[in-house]
Every structure is written in structure tokens, then in C-alpha cells.
């Protein structure tokens, strides 16, 4: 069985999840990151799609909160 390669140097040296996601989205935007299994069938998401959604969410937060303010994220189950 072949071992999965370890993280790249850039990922090992990243200080935050944002840095890791940005690296993955710029270096491998079309690589599959996750697959959600739902009753409607599997939904796949790439690193580029996650990064795009995260940037859009961050822009909405910035429009409604001061830098350094706390926000609460509430998601339904499933």
C-alpha cells in the first residue's frame, strides 16, 4: 500500500488555516477537497471553491463588523 505524501513545506510552515487554504487554492484549485454524502447524492467541493466561498463570507463579515469583532456561525445539522 502506498503512503499518502506528507504536507508540503508551505503547509508545514503556515501559521493559520487561512494560509493553508490560500496555498491549496492557488496551487491546486481544482483538486477535490471534500465530498459530502447526502440523500440527494454526493456533493464534491474543490480547494478553489472553498476558498472562494470563504472569501465571500469574510467580505460579508467585514461589511457588518469592525476588525477584531467576534462573530457567531450557526449551521443546521446535516
Q: What features would you highlight for this structure?
A:
3 helices; 78 residues; 44% helix; two-stranded antiparallel sheet; 12% strand; alpha+beta
Describe, in plain words, how this protein is organized in 3D:
This protein has three helices and two strands. It is an alpha+beta fold and 78 residues long. A two-stranded antiparallel sheet has the order 1-2. Helix 2 (17-27) crosses helix 3. The termini are far apart. 4% of the residues are buried.
Write the topology of this structure.
Elements: H1 9-13, H2 17-27, E1 32-36, E2 43-46, H3 47-64
Antiparallel strand pairs: 1-2
Helix pairs in contact: 2-3
Question: How many strands, which pairing sense, and closed or not: the largest β-sheet?
Answer: 2 strands, antiparallel
Terminal CA distance: 33 Å
Which of globular, elongated, flat, extended, rod-shaped describes the shape?
flat
**Class by helix and strand content?**
alpha+beta
List SSEs in N-to-C order: HHEEH
Give a short synopsis of this structure.
This protein is an alpha+beta fold. The protein has helices at residues 9-13, 17-27, 47-64; strands at residues 32-36, 43-46. A two-stranded antiparallel ribbon has the order 1-2.
Amino acid at each position: 500500500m502506498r503512503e499518502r505524501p506528507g504536507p508540503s513545506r508551505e503547509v508545514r510552515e503556515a501559521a493559520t488555516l487561512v494560509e493553508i487554504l490560500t496555498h491549496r487554492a492557488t496551487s491546486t484549485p481544482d483538486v477535490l477537497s471534500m465530498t459530502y454524502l447526502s440523500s440527494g447524492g454526493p456533493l464534491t467541493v474543490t480547494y478553489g471553491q472553498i476558498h472562494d466561498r470563504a472569501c465571500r463570507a469574510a467580505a460579508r463579515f467585514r461589511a457588518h463588523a469592525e476588525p477584531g469583532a467576534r462573530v457567531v456561525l450557526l449551521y443546521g445539522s446535516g
